[in-house]
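[SOLVED] Need 3D model of a two-part complex

Original post:
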Amino acid sequence: MNVDILFTHYNYIVVALLLTIGAYMLVETPNLVKKVIGMNVFQSGIFLFFITSAYRTGGSPPIVGHGGASTTYVSPLPHVLILTAIVVGVSLTAVALALIVRIYTEYGTLDERVLREVRADE
Amino acid sequence: MTLLEATVLVFVIGCALATAVFRDILSVIVASAAYSLGIATLWVLLQAPDVALTEAAVGAGIMTLLFLLTVAKTVNPTTDRFFERIRPRTFVVLVCFLGVLLMTVPALPAIGDAGSPVVGGEVTNYYLDNAYEQTEVENVVTAVLAAYRGFDTLGEAAVVFTAGVAVLLVLRREAFV
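Solution:
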Protein backbone atom coordinates (compact mmCIF):
# COMPACT_ATOMS: atom_id res chain seq x y z
CA MET A 1 0.00 0.00 0.00
CA ASN A 2 1.18 3.49 -0.83
CA VAL A 3 2.44 5.48 2.19
CA ASP A 4 0.84 8.70 0.92
CA ILE A 5 -2.57 7.16 1.66
CA LEU A 6 -1.77 7.57 5.38
CA PHE A 7 -1.65 11.36 4.97
CA THR A 8 -4.52 11.85 2.52
CA HIS A 9 -7.00 9.20 3.75
CA TYR A 10 -6.18 8.98 7.49
CA ASN A 11 -9.81 9.34 8.66
CA TYR A 12 -10.95 6.45 6.46
CA ILE A 13 -8.28 4.23 8.05
CA VAL A 14 -9.69 5.20 11.47
CA VAL A 15 -13.17 4.32 10.13
CA ALA A 16 -11.90 0.83 9.20
CA LEU A 17 -10.38 0.39 12.69
CA LEU A 18 -13.56 1.56 14.46
CA LEU A 19 -15.74 -0.78 12.36
CA THR A 20 -13.42 -3.69 13.21
CA ILE A 21 -13.47 -2.91 16.95
CA GLY A 22 -17.27 -2.47 16.88
CA ALA A 23 -17.81 -5.73 14.99
CA TYR A 24 -15.55 -7.58 17.46
CA MET A 25 -17.52 -6.25 20.45
CA LEU A 26 -20.88 -7.06 18.81
CA VAL A 27 -20.00 -10.65 17.96
CA GLU A 28 -17.45 -11.84 20.48
CA THR A 29 -18.16 -10.34 23.92
CA PRO A 30 -20.66 -12.38 25.96
CA ASN A 31 -21.91 -9.43 28.04
CA LEU A 32 -25.04 -7.87 26.53
CA VAL A 33 -24.32 -4.30 27.76
CA LYS A 34 -20.88 -4.43 26.11
CA LYS A 35 -22.51 -5.59 22.88
CA VAL A 36 -24.67 -2.44 22.84
CA ILE A 37 -21.59 -0.27 23.42
CA GLY A 38 -19.92 -2.12 20.53
CA MET A 39 -22.91 -1.27 18.35
CA ASN A 40 -22.40 2.41 19.21
CA VAL A 41 -18.70 2.22 18.29
CA PHE A 42 -19.65 0.62 14.95
CA GLN A 43 -22.24 3.34 14.33
CA SER A 44 -19.87 6.20 15.04
CA GLY A 45 -17.37 4.61 12.64
CA ILE A 46 -19.98 5.04 9.91
CA PHE A 47 -20.72 8.59 11.11
CA LEU A 48 -17.01 9.43 10.79
CA PHE A 49 -17.08 8.16 7.20
CA PHE A 50 -19.97 10.50 6.32
CA ILE A 51 -18.65 13.61 8.09
CA THR A 52 -15.19 13.10 6.57
CA SER A 53 -16.74 12.90 3.10
CA ALA A 54 -18.40 16.28 3.75
CA TYR A 55 -15.11 17.96 4.70
CA ARG A 56 -13.40 20.40 2.36
CA THR A 57 -9.95 21.87 2.99
CA GLY A 58 -10.30 25.46 4.19
CA GLY A 59 -14.08 25.15 4.33
CA SER A 60 -16.10 26.75 7.10
CA PRO A 61 -19.30 25.44 8.72
CA PRO A 62 -22.25 25.90 6.31
CA ILE A 63 -23.64 29.11 7.81
CA VAL A 64 -24.51 31.49 4.98
CA GLY A 65 -26.24 34.87 4.75
CA HIS A 66 -25.04 38.35 5.76
CA GLY A 67 -23.27 38.60 2.42
CA GLY A 68 -21.30 35.45 3.20
CA ALA A 69 -18.03 36.02 5.02
CA SER A 70 -16.58 32.90 3.47
CA THR A 71 -16.99 31.41 0.03
CA THR A 72 -16.02 27.81 0.74
CA TYR A 73 -18.24 25.71 2.95
CA VAL A 74 -18.23 22.07 3.93
CA SER A 75 -21.19 20.10 2.57
CA PRO A 76 -24.26 20.36 4.86
CA LEU A 77 -26.03 17.21 3.60
CA PRO A 78 -23.99 14.50 5.40
CA HIS A 79 -24.30 16.60 8.59
CA VAL A 80 -28.10 16.47 8.32
CA LEU A 81 -28.08 12.71 7.72
CA ILE A 82 -25.80 12.09 10.71
CA LEU A 83 -27.83 14.34 13.03
CA THR A 84 -30.85 12.16 12.27
CA ALA A 85 -28.76 8.98 12.61
CA ILE A 86 -27.43 10.00 16.06
CA VAL A 87 -30.96 10.52 17.41
CA VAL A 88 -32.19 7.23 15.91
CA GLY A 89 -29.11 5.53 17.39
CA VAL A 90 -30.03 6.79 20.87
CA SER A 91 -33.60 5.46 20.46
CA LEU A 92 -32.14 2.10 19.42
CA THR A 93 -29.81 2.06 22.44
CA ALA A 94 -32.65 2.94 24.80
CA VAL A 95 -34.84 0.06 23.53
CA ALA A 96 -31.89 -2.36 23.61
CA LEU A 97 -31.04 -1.42 27.20
CA ALA A 98 -34.72 -1.74 28.26
CA LEU A 99 -34.74 -5.27 26.78
CA ILE A 100 -31.51 -6.03 28.66
CA VAL A 101 -33.04 -4.90 31.97
CA ARG A 102 -36.07 -7.13 31.21
CA ILE A 103 -33.83 -10.10 30.36
CA TYR A 104 -32.01 -9.62 33.64
CA THR A 105 -35.23 -9.58 35.70
CA GLU A 106 -36.42 -12.78 33.91
CA TYR A 107 -33.20 -14.80 33.82
CA GLY A 108 -30.86 -13.16 36.35
CA THR A 109 -27.91 -12.99 34.00
CA LEU A 110 -26.45 -10.77 31.27
CA ASP A 111 -23.99 -13.37 30.00
CA GLU A 112 -24.94 -14.65 26.56
CA ARG A 113 -23.48 -18.13 27.15
CA VAL A 114 -25.26 -18.62 30.49
CA LEU A 115 -28.45 -17.32 28.89
CA ARG A 116 -28.20 -19.90 26.11
CA GLU A 117 -27.79 -22.73 28.66
CA VAL A 118 -30.76 -21.50 30.70
CA ARG A 119 -32.90 -21.30 27.56
CA ALA A 120 -31.84 -24.81 26.52
CA ASP A 121 -32.89 -26.22 29.90
CA GLU A 122 -36.41 -24.85 29.67
CA MET B 1 -3.03 16.28 8.95
CA THR B 2 -2.31 18.62 11.86
CA LEU B 3 -0.84 17.50 15.17
CA LEU B 4 -4.18 18.23 16.89
CA GLU B 5 -6.09 16.01 14.46
CA ALA B 6 -3.57 13.20 14.87
CA THR B 7 -3.79 13.44 18.68
CA VAL B 8 -7.60 13.31 18.67
CA LEU B 9 -7.63 10.38 16.23
CA VAL B 10 -5.18 8.42 18.40
CA PHE B 11 -7.27 9.28 21.49
CA VAL B 12 -10.45 8.04 19.76
CA ILE B 13 -8.85 4.75 18.69
CA GLY B 14 -7.35 4.30 22.17
CA CYS B 15 -10.74 4.80 23.85
CA ALA B 16 -12.44 2.43 21.37
CA LEU B 17 -9.81 -0.23 22.11
CA ALA B 18 -10.31 0.36 25.84
CA THR B 19 -14.06 -0.29 25.53
CA ALA B 20 -13.26 -3.53 23.70
CA VAL B 21 -10.61 -4.97 26.06
CA PHE B 22 -11.87 -4.06 29.57
CA ARG B 23 -14.04 -6.68 31.26
CA ASP B 24 -15.41 -4.46 34.03
CA ILE B 25 -18.60 -2.86 32.67
CA LEU B 26 -18.20 0.42 34.58
CA SER B 27 -14.71 0.86 33.08
CA VAL B 28 -16.16 0.18 29.64
CA ILE B 29 -18.87 2.82 30.16
CA VAL B 30 -16.31 5.42 31.30
CA ALA B 31 -14.13 4.60 28.27
CA SER B 32 -17.13 4.93 25.95
CA ALA B 33 -17.98 8.36 27.44
CA ALA B 34 -14.38 9.48 26.80
CA TYR B 35 -14.72 8.02 23.30
CA SER B 36 -17.84 10.13 22.65
CA LEU B 37 -15.98 13.23 23.83
CA GLY B 38 -13.13 12.48 21.42
CA ILE B 39 -15.58 11.94 18.56
CA ALA B 40 -17.33 15.26 19.37
CA THR B 41 -13.93 17.04 19.22
CA LEU B 42 -13.33 15.37 15.87
CA TRP B 43 -16.62 16.76 14.52
CA VAL B 44 -15.49 20.28 15.52
CA LEU B 45 -12.20 19.77 13.67
CA LEU B 46 -14.15 18.57 10.60
CA GLN B 47 -16.25 21.79 10.69
CA ALA B 48 -19.48 20.09 11.79
CA PRO B 49 -20.52 22.09 14.89
CA ASP B 50 -24.18 20.93 14.82
CA VAL B 51 -23.17 17.28 14.86
CA ALA B 52 -20.57 18.00 17.57
CA LEU B 53 -23.21 19.58 19.85
CA THR B 54 -25.60 16.66 19.35
CA GLU B 55 -22.84 14.13 19.94
CA ALA B 56 -21.65 15.86 23.13
CA ALA B 57 -25.18 16.19 24.55
CA VAL B 58 -26.59 12.86 23.42
CA GLY B 59 -23.57 10.59 22.97
CA ALA B 60 -21.50 11.60 25.97
CA GLY B 61 -24.42 12.74 28.15
CA ILE B 62 -27.70 10.82 27.72
CA MET B 63 -26.11 7.62 26.43
CA THR B 64 -23.72 7.37 29.41
CA LEU B 65 -26.66 8.01 31.75
CA LEU B 66 -28.68 5.22 30.11
CA PHE B 67 -25.79 2.76 30.44
CA LEU B 68 -25.17 3.69 34.09
CA LEU B 69 -28.90 3.26 34.86
CA THR B 70 -28.83 -0.16 33.20
CA VAL B 71 -25.86 -1.25 35.32
CA ALA B 72 -27.63 0.06 38.44
CA LYS B 73 -30.76 -1.98 37.55
CA THR B 74 -28.82 -5.13 36.61
CA VAL B 75 -25.39 -6.37 37.61
CA ASN B 76 -21.73 -5.61 37.03
CA PRO B 77 -20.25 -9.13 36.88
CA THR B 78 -17.29 -9.53 39.22
CA THR B 79 -14.28 -10.87 37.45
CA ASP B 80 -10.78 -12.00 38.32
CA ARG B 81 -9.37 -10.89 35.00
CA PHE B 82 -9.06 -7.22 34.05
CA PHE B 83 -8.82 -7.62 30.25
CA GLU B 84 -10.69 -9.68 27.68
CA ARG B 85 -8.84 -12.61 26.23
CA ILE B 86 -8.93 -12.55 22.43
CA ARG B 87 -8.91 -16.02 20.86
CA PRO B 88 -6.39 -16.54 18.01
CA ARG B 89 -9.04 -17.49 15.45
CA THR B 90 -11.07 -14.35 16.35
CA PHE B 91 -7.91 -12.30 15.85
CA VAL B 92 -7.36 -13.82 12.39
CA VAL B 93 -10.96 -13.05 11.36
CA LEU B 94 -10.62 -9.47 12.62
CA VAL B 95 -7.39 -8.93 10.69
CA CYS B 96 -9.08 -10.25 7.51
CA PHE B 97 -12.09 -7.96 8.08
CA LEU B 98 -9.79 -4.96 8.63
CA GLY B 99 -7.80 -5.90 5.51
CA VAL B 100 -10.92 -5.99 3.34
CA LEU B 101 -12.05 -2.59 4.69
CA LEU B 102 -8.59 -1.05 4.16
CA MET B 103 -8.54 -2.29 0.56
CA THR B 104 -11.46 0.04 -0.21
CA VAL B 105 -9.70 3.11 1.25
CA PRO B 106 -7.49 4.05 -1.78
CA ALA B 107 -10.60 4.14 -4.00
CA LEU B 108 -12.09 7.01 -1.95
CA PRO B 109 -11.40 10.68 -2.75
CA ALA B 110 -8.71 12.36 -0.61
CA ILE B 111 -9.89 14.16 2.55
CA GLY B 112 -10.76 17.81 1.82
CA ASP B 113 -10.71 17.33 -1.96
CA ALA B 114 -12.87 20.13 -3.44
CA GLY B 115 -13.77 17.99 -6.45
CA SER B 116 -15.10 14.99 -4.54
CA PRO B 117 -18.66 13.88 -5.42
CA VAL B 118 -20.08 15.02 -2.08
CA VAL B 119 -18.42 18.45 -1.75
CA GLY B 120 -18.45 19.41 -5.42
CA GLY B 121 -21.81 17.80 -6.14
CA GLU B 122 -24.76 19.60 -7.66
CA VAL B 123 -27.10 19.02 -4.70
CA THR B 124 -24.65 20.41 -2.13
CA ASN B 125 -24.11 23.55 -4.18
CA TYR B 126 -27.84 24.01 -4.76
CA TYR B 127 -28.50 24.06 -1.02
CA LEU B 128 -25.52 26.33 -0.29
CA ASP B 129 -26.57 28.82 -2.99
CA ASN B 130 -30.34 28.90 -2.40
CA ALA B 131 -31.02 27.89 1.22
CA TYR B 132 -30.84 31.42 2.61
CA GLU B 133 -33.07 32.96 -0.06
CA GLN B 134 -35.66 30.22 0.05
CA THR B 135 -35.90 29.57 3.80
CA GLU B 136 -34.26 32.64 5.43
CA VAL B 137 -32.35 30.32 7.74
CA GLU B 138 -28.64 31.13 7.89
CA ASN B 139 -27.52 27.69 9.00
CA VAL B 140 -27.89 25.44 5.96
CA VAL B 141 -27.90 22.30 8.13
CA THR B 142 -30.94 23.63 10.02
CA ALA B 143 -32.55 24.74 6.75
CA VAL B 144 -32.30 21.26 5.23
CA LEU B 145 -33.29 19.51 8.48
CA ALA B 146 -36.33 21.63 9.32
CA ALA B 147 -37.46 23.08 5.98
CA TYR B 148 -36.45 21.03 2.93
CA ARG B 149 -36.58 17.67 4.68
CA GLY B 150 -39.09 18.56 7.40
CA PHE B 151 -41.11 15.40 6.83
CA ASP B 152 -38.02 13.27 7.45
CA THR B 153 -37.57 15.05 10.76
CA LEU B 154 -41.22 14.33 11.56
CA GLY B 155 -40.47 10.66 10.82
CA GLU B 156 -37.48 10.87 13.15
CA ALA B 157 -39.74 12.24 15.90
CA ALA B 158 -42.07 9.28 15.26
CA VAL B 159 -39.08 6.91 15.72
CA VAL B 160 -38.19 8.52 19.05
CA PHE B 161 -41.83 8.34 20.19
CA THR B 162 -42.06 4.66 19.19
CA ALA B 163 -38.84 3.94 21.08
CA GLY B 164 -40.25 5.64 24.18
CA VAL B 165 -43.46 3.58 23.97
CA ALA B 166 -41.42 0.40 23.44
CA VAL B 167 -39.26 1.11 26.51
CA LEU B 168 -42.38 1.68 28.65
CA LEU B 169 -43.99 -1.54 27.38
CA VAL B 170 -40.86 -3.64 27.90
CA LEU B 171 -40.20 -2.36 31.41
CA ARG B 172 -43.88 -2.60 32.44
CA ARG B 173 -43.56 0.39 34.75
CA GLU B 174 -42.34 -1.39 37.91
CA ALA B 175 -38.72 -0.74 36.92
CA PHE B 176 -39.28 2.98 37.50
CA VAL B 177 -40.44 2.59 41.12
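Edit: Chain A touches chain B through 82 residues (CB under 8 Å).
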